[in-house]
């Protein structure tokens, strides 16, 4: 079960499962702990995973005043501090990948490694125009369902739309009791739209894996490549048949890839590798079962 941690006057909803090396999971626009359900279920036998609701999403209230990626990165650092975690492997997707970049820049000592899914160093004109459209859609859509149906066209593959995956995600999102308001969606979009790390990425020294979906129409592969080229030693991979959120659409493949990356980092730094489930008889705490994660991007 999750709980709120306190950072000054901020309340941040946080959940933690598993045992092993620490991992911090950072979601994107409007995303909550539930967006990482496949990772919380699939990796807790090897890692201690911490996920949280970003400010203004789910059970974490939006504070007054401007919303910035810098402030969201400080929230992530506050979660680690409150839980007594000195450093963690950090994985973020979409806007959460921007928060992860900023976390590594502002709080480098807490980041053991970075996995950046569907990321960018600064929005290009195409992505900027898409964000302006979603900003408009959040306020103009006649219903939550209409907003999600339009938004998810650019988030999930045609495969996921055609096999019923997206319909199931929409039903879970509509049933989810802790919704992000359209106004908070727009404030978060505004923060992502103006944020740039382009000229600072060479300061990141943490081992980094950048993943891009080959058919992602938003954070297209050229943007991910631009991030990887500016972080020394970063690995870059394009998954040609995937879109914005392969960690939800092909979670077994995604989990295996990041597990291999984290094991490589642990081996390189001389830290014992995470246990396999069959290594001994201990069993980690598990989150409640969920058929599909609830999330946006």
UniProtKB/TrEMBL annotation:
Keyword Hydrolase: yes
GO MF assignments: triacylglycerol lipase activity
Entry keyword set: Hydrolase
GO BP annotations, alphabetical order: glycerolipid catabolic process
Pfam families tied to this protein: Abhydrolase_1
AB hydrolase-1 domain sequence ranges: 23-134
Name of the featured protein: Alpha/beta fold hydrolase
């Amino acid at each position: 079960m999750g709980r709120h941690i306190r950072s000054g006057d901020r309340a941040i909803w946080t959940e933690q499962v598993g045992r092993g090396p620490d991992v911090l999971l950072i979601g994107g626009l409007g995303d909550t702990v539930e967006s990482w359900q496949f990772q919380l279920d699939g990796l807790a036998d090897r890692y201690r995973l911490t996920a949280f609701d970003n400010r203004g999403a789910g059970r974490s209230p939006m504070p007054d005043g401007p919303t910035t990626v810098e402030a969201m990165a400080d929230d992530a650092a506050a979660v680690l501090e409150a839980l007594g975690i000195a450093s963690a492997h950090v994985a973020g997707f979409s806007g959460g990948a921007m928060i992860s970049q900023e976390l590594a820049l502002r709080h480098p000592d807490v980041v053991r490694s970075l996995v950046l899914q569907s990321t960018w160093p600064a929005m290009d004109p195409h992505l900027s125009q898409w964000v302006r459209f979603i900003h408009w859609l959040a306020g103009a859509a006649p219903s939550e369902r209409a907003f999600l149906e339009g938004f998810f066209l650019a988030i999930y593959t045609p495969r996921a739309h055609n096999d019923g995956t997206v319909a199931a995600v929409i039903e879970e999102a509509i049933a989810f009791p802790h919704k992000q308001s359209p106004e908070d969606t727009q404030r978060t979009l505004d923060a992502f739209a103006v944020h740039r790390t382009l000229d600072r990425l060479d300061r990141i020294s943490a081992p980094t894996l950048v993943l891009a979906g080959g058919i992602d129409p938003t954070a297209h592969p050229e943007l991910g490549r631009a991030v990887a080229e500016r972080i020394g030693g970063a690995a870059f991979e394009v998954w040609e048949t995937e879109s914005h959120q392969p960690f939800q659409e092909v979670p077994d493949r995604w989990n295996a890839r990041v597990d291999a990356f984290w094991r490589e980092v642990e081996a390189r730094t001389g830290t014992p590798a995470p246990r396999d489930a069959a290594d001994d008889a201990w069993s980690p705490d598990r989150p409640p079962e969920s058929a599909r994660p609830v999330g946006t991007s």
